[in-house]
Design a protein that fits this description.
The longest helix is centred in the last third of the chain and has 28 residues, at 316-343. Strands 2-1-3-4-5 form a 5-stranded parallel β-sheet, sandwiched between helices. The chain has 15 helices and 5 strands. α12 links the parallel β4 and β5 (261-264). The chain is 46% helix and 7% strand. With 350 residues, it is an alpha/beta fold. The chain has helices at 2-25, 38-45, 57-60, 65-72, 86-96, 120-127, 134-143, 151-154, 157-160, 169-173, 211-226, 245-257, 269-272, 289-303, 316-343, and strands at residues 51-55, 76-80, 104-108, 230-235, 261-264. α4 (65-72) packs across α14 (289-303) and α5 packs parallel to α11 (211-226).
């Protein structure tokens, strides 16, 4: 019995030590690579969202759920991550359905050009924050590059055990706490850098989307249909990297064949009011706050006409919840405005 107790104590201590070391060594995505926090932040906002945005930086930079609520009483959340590939987007949808069933799913189609996993770094920014489930397991298997190991996602210490020399104060400050980064998935930037010059597009030998990408788009379509969800395809209002007409036409044809709505925001600059001399913070790759709010106000007119979408500002409990979100949103805006006044740039999202 004494031997059993000693062995048990040893095992508990060993597991506790490994758990602590893993917590310490895994990147916190609080100051460095902050976008890596977006995937995990969804769970704080899960439930009762009528609209789900999925895709890459062209959704988490270009749409504001707070503005959609303020203008139309639409509840929405963004599950966007850097360089999110289409299989990631599909599994983000599947993961979301474990917590809620939105009325509308909005998918940004820019990732249709990629048919193979490209980077472990971007995989980590998308996958590490997902809660464990069979969906996450499937997402990992679909996303891994040839050099990656499935076990390194199950036990991240296997991947990050050598980070000892890279540890910073961030790793200790956020060891057991999180730093709120987004507003229902929207990543705010208020600074401005105009589009002054765009490089000429480089012709491609083949513009045809791969069977892999069509397969995942079909899976997304079927999943939405099975759950009574309206799927809307968009190309967000980012003017670089270049969006080829040949790509656009394939999406337009697919939408027509499948009875889906497809909106290319680049073709609606006049209606949205987006001004690329003021409404982008990085010369056209992403919109800033003013651009995201303009996109949201214009798109909200389309969303409010979709089946099941209603103005929910009359719900007192829900309104109180969103009023708190609005306060956080305005506080971050004021914080970034202060940074601009004092330093001439936004050095942090907070």
């Amino acid at each position: 019995m004494k031997r059993l107790i000693r062995v048990s104590i040893f095992l508990v201590a060993l597991i506790g030590t490994l758990w602590f070391l893993q917590k310490l060594l895994v990147p916190k995505y609080a100051v460095e690579n902050e976008e890596g926090a977006l995937s995990g932040e969804y769970y704080d906002n899960a439930g009762d969202n009528d609209v789900l945005f999925i895709g890459d930086c062209e959704v988490y930079s270009n749409f504001s759920p707070i503005k959609l609520w303020q203008e139309y009483g639409i509840t929405s959340v963004i599950r966007g991550t850097p360089q999110q590939e289409i299989w990631n987007s599909y599994y983000m949808l599947k993961d979301t359905l474990r917590y809620e069933t939105p009325k509308v799913v909005v998918f940004n189609v820019f990732s249709m050009q990629y048919d193979k996993p490209r980077s472990e770094a971007f995989n980590r920014l998308t996958l590490d924050g997902m809660r464990w489930s069979s969906v996450k397991s499937e997402a990992i298997k679909a996303s891994m590059t040839e050099e990656e190991s499935y076990l390194s996602y199950v036990f991240p210490i296997l991947r990050f055990h050598s980070r000892w020399s890279e540890l910073t104060s961030e790793d200790f400050e956020y060891l057991f706490s999180k730093r709120k980064l987004s507003h229902n998935g929207y990543l705010m930037r208020i600074d401005s850098k105009p589009v002054e010059h765009l490089p000429e597009p480089i012709p491609k030998a083949d513009y045809t989307y791969s069977e892999t990408c069509w397969d995942y788009l079909n899976k997304m379509r079927d999943c939405c249909k099975e759950n009574g969800i309206t799927l809307i395809l968009i190309k967000s209002a980012s003017c670089y990297p270049y969006w080829y007409e040949e790509w656009d036409q394939q999406i337009a044809d697919y939408a027509k064949e499948n009875g889906l709505t497809y909106i290319n925001f680049l073709q609606h600059a006049d209606e949205t009011g987006i001004d690329y001399s003021t409404d982008t913070f990085d010369a056209g790759l992403h919109l800033n706050l003013s651009g995201a709010e303009k996109s949201s106000v214009w798109f909200g007119k389309i969303l409010k006409e979709q089946p099941g979408i209603t103005d929910r500002r009359g719900d007192q409990e829900l309104s109180e919840k969103w009023e708190e979100k609005i306060r956080d949103y305005n506080e971050m805006k004021e914080s970034q405005e202060k940074q601009l006044r004092e330093t001439g740039k936004v050095t942090s999202f907070h």
